[in-house]
TrEMBL record:
A Pfam family annotated for this UniProt entry: PS_pyruv_trans
Name the record gives this protein: Polysaccharide pyruvyl transferase family protein WcaK
Matching InterPro entries: Polysacch_pyruvyl_Trfase
Gene3D superfamilies associated with the record: Glycogen Phosphorylase B
Length: 405
């Protein structure tokens, strides 16, 4: 794929979800490496535009550094729900005309303007009119949808379709990057039509890949490729400390999310499993336990359930809840674990890609598919939270994974 052309990455939810940060970070670095390999003239090649739901979050973590290095330009989406007058005007327009995409034109206006300015900046630098047009920056622009599991959430699909259609109408080639798709969702005719309109789809695991093939997506536009976050760099980190106190010995990493708890079929079963598991580790091993948040959004903050676990075991002196930090730093700590159990997909990808024995508390096709591709089956490596009923399932899963590692 020719990457020496204007590129927009859209539907990035913000780096307060460190999985989103990991995808965007790894993708931008991949684009930069590939451009060098393709012999791009970097000062004449438009810098990728990242249209983000929350630029302040991005600049707090690693994407801010990438922006300073010239690997991206961060642009905030417009939030129509935060602009009373715009909301009234656009809602009235849509009500009268039926123009549903008007909200997307508002949402991506600043991002499209930044793309135009960057494209024109590089276009003005052209000096050799006889240059090889295969590497000209004026080639068809590329829009990459980077929210890996966005299409797994039915409430998001209608907006995803409108957003994709917006960039297609603007003349972009479009790519769905590192995606997972629930097979049953492909029965939705509107969703399937939208997916067929992408120029290329990269599925990150084989369950989604095979489902897309069976649904009629052409093999010529479909590729199976690991999640880009597998390539996230691992930052060197110091020992696990709480002030001057350092946890003794090896440690087991634990991640838990409110999202997984909300999807349990048996009320309280997830927290009960985690508490029994930590108690088992403290009573039967000499290892410590590190609680690792991977999403810190106000509406879905891993630190809330992890704080409950910390409060239950803090008197042991062997349990610590680490602070929020960039994705590559979190991966640094996860890489030092002797075992990891995680609910957030990208916390487990950090563990998988570091060679750490890992057990997933999953809720969707992405966790099942990734485990299947790594181990041949997700059985024993992934515990679907909807099926969780045994309060000792996590202990038993730990024993099985460790005995087969």
């Amino acid at each position: 794929m020719n990457l020496n052309r204007p590129i927009v990455l859209y539907y990035h939810a913000g780096s307060g979800n460190h999985g989103c940060e990991a995808i965007a970070n790894s993708t931008l670095k991949l684009i930069h490496r590939k451009r060098i390999e393709q012999g791009c003239i970097m000062d004449k090649t438009p810098i990728p535009i990242v249209i983000s739901n929350n630029v302040d979050e991005d600049r707090k973590y690693s994407l801010g550094d990438l922006e300073k290095q010239g690997l991206c330009i961060l642009v905030n989406e417009r939030h129509i729900d935060k602009d009373f007058f715009a909301h009234v005007i656009y809602y009235g327009w849509r009500k009268v005309t039926g123009d549903k995409q008007s909200f997307m034109r508002y949402r991506f206006r600043d991002g499209y303007r930044a793309y135009t300015l960057e494209h024109n900046r590089c276009d003005h630098k052209k000096t050799d009119e006889k240059k090889d047009m295969s590497t000209a920056s004026g080639n068809t622009p590329l829009a990459i949808s980077i929210g890996g599991d966005n299409y797994c959430y039915p409430e998001m699909v209608s907006d995803l379709i409108l957003a994709h259609d917006y960039f297609r109408k603007k003349g972009f080639d479009t790519v769905l990057w590192g995606c997972s798709i629930e097979p049953d969702s492909l029965k939705d005719a509107a969703l399937l039509k939208d997916l067929m309109n992408f120029d290329r789809i990269y599925a990150r695991e084989s369950i989604s890949y095979n489902a897309l093939l069976e649904a009629g997506i052409s093999v010529d536009k479909l590729e199976l490729r690991k999640d880009p976050a597998f390539e996230l760099e691992t930052n060197a980190v110091s020992g696990i400390r709480d002030g001057a106190f350092e946890l003794p010995g090896k440690y087991i990493g634990i991640n838990l999310s409110p999202m997984v708890i909300a999807k349990e079929s048996t009320s309280g079963i997830t927290m009960e499993n985690y508490k029994r598991f930590i108690h088992y580790i403290l009573e039967n091993t000499d290892q410590s336990v590190v609680l690792i948040p991977h999403v810190v959004w106000a509406g879905s903050d891993d630190r809330k359930p992890l704080s409950e676990l910390y409060d239950a075991f803090k008197d042991s002196g062997r349990v610590l809840l680490i602070e929020d930090m960039p994705a590559s730093d979190l991966k640094g700590y996860i890489s030092q674990c002797s075992f990891f159990v995680g609910a957030r997909t990208h916390s487990t990808i950090a563990a998988y890609s570091s060679g750490v024995p890992t057990l997933v508390i999953g809720y969707s096709v992405k966790s099942r598919g990734i485990a299947t591709d790594l181990f041949g089956s997700y059985e024993n490596y992934c515990l679907p939270v909807q099926e969780l009923s045994d309060p000792d399932a996590l202990i038993n899963g730990y024993k099985w994974v460790m005995s087969h590692s």
